[in-house]
Amino acid sequence: MSKRILQVVEGAYRATIEEQDDTVVWFTQAIKGGGADVTVLLRGHAVNYAVKGQDASGLAFGDRKQTQPPDLSGDLVRMIAKGVSVYVVRDDLAARGLTPADLVDGLTPVTTAEIPAMLGRYDLVWHW
Amino acid sequence: MTRSEEVAMTERKKLALLLMDAPYESARTTTALRLVDAAARRGLDLTVFCYEGAVALSFARQAPHANAVHGRDVAQEDHPNPKDWIAALMVQAEQSGGRLAWINCGLCVDERGVGEVAAGIGRGSPVDFWKAAEAADNTLVIPTRG
């Protein structure tokens, strides 16, 4: 049986325009495709990945346009559809004035106080 | 491989590490290499997966430089290049009866144009790191920060 992996994503918007995605969310999708048993926990600024309606399009340097901007909330939705559970820290949402209505569907809210017990359910915790 | 070598390899502790920082940018890289060194000296079976900027750690065209501020020429400055540290760690691992597999994320290499790598460096994908983590006794991810 595969080890249970928890990907804790905290470093947010790290080169997302250059990479056209978040590199940890991408990494997660790649190993899920390989067969990994992986879950994502969004905390800190990364909770903003779950906000609907983000639009990073329009960037151009000279005549070179970024035609495929990142779609971070869309990536989360696609990842959830592939069977990856995505948790989001409720306290971090509240600190940023975000409500459930602002977010994409399919997320599981968790409080900061619940995280220690959550960590115990995983064999590997990778904190990015 | 002899039977005794197979048994020794099976019994060796396995560690999988992921590095993400580009060379000459963060003390995290030095710390990570210290950890790899300590493990290599103990004969562990090590896999290091380099993600994003860390793939440049093994870029073959790294070159030492003189340093006028220090008042030293190239030879005197003896400027360390991470590709040489990696090579030394591979030798150290082997001499200690262990192994160090150093794997670069292939797409990260391509987008940075650092495909010309030092001898012994592998190319792979996140799935290779996941497989190494599955087989390892422990795993450490050291991401970039800030």
Secondary structure blueprint with pairings:
The complex is a heterodimer of chains A (about 130) and B (about 150).
Chain A: E1 4-9, H1 16-19, H2 23-34, E2 37-42, E3 60-61, E4 64-65, H3 72-81, E5 86-89, H4 90-95, E6 108-110, H5 115-119, E7 124-127
Parallel strand pairs in A: 1-2, 1-7, 2-5, 5-6
Antiparallel strand pairs in A: 3-4
Chain B: H1 3-11, E1 14-19, H2 27-41, E2 45-50, H3 74-77, H4 82-95, E3 99-105, H5 106-112, E4 121-124, H6 126-135, E5 138-142
Parallel strand pairs in B: 1-2, 1-5, 2-3, 3-4
Helix pairs in contact in B: 2-4
Determine the CATH superfamily of chain A: DsrEFH-like
Shape field of chain B: globular
**Main beta-sheet annotation of chain A:** 5 strands, parallel
Order of helices and strands of chain A: EHHEEEHEHEHE
Count of separate DSSP helical elements of chain A? 5
Describe the structure.
- The complex is a heterodimer of chains A (128) and B (146).
- With 128 residues, chain A is an alpha/beta fold.
- Chain A has a single domain, classed as 3-Layer(aba) Sandwich (Hypothetical Protein Ychn, Chain: A), CATH 3.40.1260.10.
- Chain A is 29% helix and 21% strand.
- Chain A has five helices and seven strands.
- Chain A has helices at 16-19, 23-34, 72-81, 90-95, 115-119, and strands at 4-9, 37-42, 60-61, 64-65, 86-89, 108-110, 124-127.
- In chain A, the strands form two sheets. In chain A, strands 6-5-2-1-7 form a five-stranded parallel sheet. Chain A has a two-stranded antiparallel ribbon with strand order 3-4.
- In chain A, α4 links the parallel β5 (86-89) and β6.
- Chain A is globular, with a radius of gyration of 15 Å.
- The mean pLDDT of chain A is 97.
- By secondary structure, chain B is of the alpha/beta class.
- Chain B has one domain: DsrEFH-like (Hypothetical Protein Ychn, Chain: A, 3-Layer(aba) Sandwich).
- Chain B is 40% helix and 19% strand.
- In chain B, α2 packs parallel to α4 (82-95).
- Chain B is globular.
- The model of chain B has no long low-confidence stretch (mean pLDDT 95).
- Chain A binds chain B through residues 2-3, 5, 11, 14-15, 23-24, 27, 30-31, 33-36, 124, 126-128, and chain B through 18, 51-52, 125-127, 129-131, 133-134, 139, 141, 143-146.
